[in-house]
Predict the structure.
Amino acid sequence: MADDHNSMRILRPWQIPWVRGLLAACVVAGVAAGIIESWHYVHSYARKIIEQRDHRPLKRIVLLNTPPWLSKSLLDQIAQEAVNYTIYNPRHPDYAMQLRDPLNGNILKILARHYLQDQNAGENAWIKRISFIRRAWTRSAQIIEISAVYRRPAALVAGPTGGYLVSFGGVRLPGLYKVNQFSALRWLIQIIGSQAAPPAAGSQVDAPRIQVALKLIHLLASQPYYGQIAAINMRNLGGKTSALAPQITLITRFGTQVWWGRAPGQEGFYEVPAARKLKSLAKIYARFGRIDADRAYVDIRGDQVLVPKPTTQP
């Protein structure tokens, strides 16, 4: 009996085969239920995020690294062009939804292409190159950030009734300015006597007188006396009005003149080259502190700089 008693082994519940099978089945069922529940939760959360994303407002367009010479009103108009083209575009109503989609990068490429290809739209011609367009997020709204390289105005092409701006690269910039607005742009050199109708904004200026004036501005822009030049008179380019008068005249901010002469590179045997003229102006500036030598005019076309006698000045 003792041997029979010792030979009997008491099994715990989890050691019983059918119990272990039942427990394993329960575990598998629990894991499966957890996976299904997790999937439903993730799916519901994703749907909620998508719904919030679709209704999340586009708070603003932010222009980064803007130059100081672009006014706030112009920057606002450049940013507004992005809003008009994407959110309020009647030809492409789907753009608004694409712009709010955080996974949609194609709409940002479309916006960049619009700025660069549609240069005659709005203020787009101010933009020379797009560095990047990206999304940024606040707790409640999406922000579109635009970083661009802007065209710098080189001159105001002035006419009798108004004028327009042209960049250093010879591109007509947006906007027309009345004569009474010229004083607000006095930090720019005026090109006068162009006698050419303004081209469309964003297009290359092909008027010969303006092209020559821009070439001269490029030469003068790096000089320390550049700020003393108020205007470039191109009326006599090619000797159209007088064969003896200087073809190009610089008008200083003192109301005096510098007789420059022929277009750079076109001096021939008649005048000293442009580099020599720049040296003459540098010497005058170093001596007098102003490029007109404190006279009514200076003539730098020849080997010797000519100035009127003080008694003959008007």
The first strand starts at residue 58 and ends at 64. The longest helix spans residues 17-55.
